[in-house]
Amino acid sequence: MEFAGLPLHVLVVHAAVILIPLAATLVIAFAVLPKWRWLSRWPTAAAAVGALGLAWLTRISGQAFLDDRPELEKLVQTHLERGNLLALLMIPFAVLVLVGAWSLAGTSALASGRGHQESRVPAMEKWLPVVLVLASLGIIALTVLTGDAGARAVWER
Q1: pLDDT tens-place string over residues 97-115
Q2: What are the residue ranges spanned by the domains of the chain?
């Protein structure tokens, strides 16, 4: 897979390294700032789904790049394993964020009250924000570790 003569993976990996942690940071803000949920609910959900798509595009383009250059397989093994894990973990992460966007309560700062949402599942109000924060921190850490392994593979060869 190429774009303008460059391997697609080389291009999309930069977007993934920025946008996946950014989406996870939005999730943290959504979880810990209930007074802003009226504004951040659906952009956060969209960012998480977009990050999921980007993780899979990066994974698929990386596999295509490796198929074109099989001699690199030993060199990028750690990066490959972490990238596969990240892409797989992005699925439950995005589902968790969508559940949070759908279920968590949030007041509205608008005078009209538009955007206010009552809790759809009151039992989730205490533990789901904590799970969202922990999952986001895990996604950020795994993204950094994956990118680090890829950078080391490039610069140590």
Answers
A1: 999 999 987 766 654 566 6
A2: 2-128+135-155
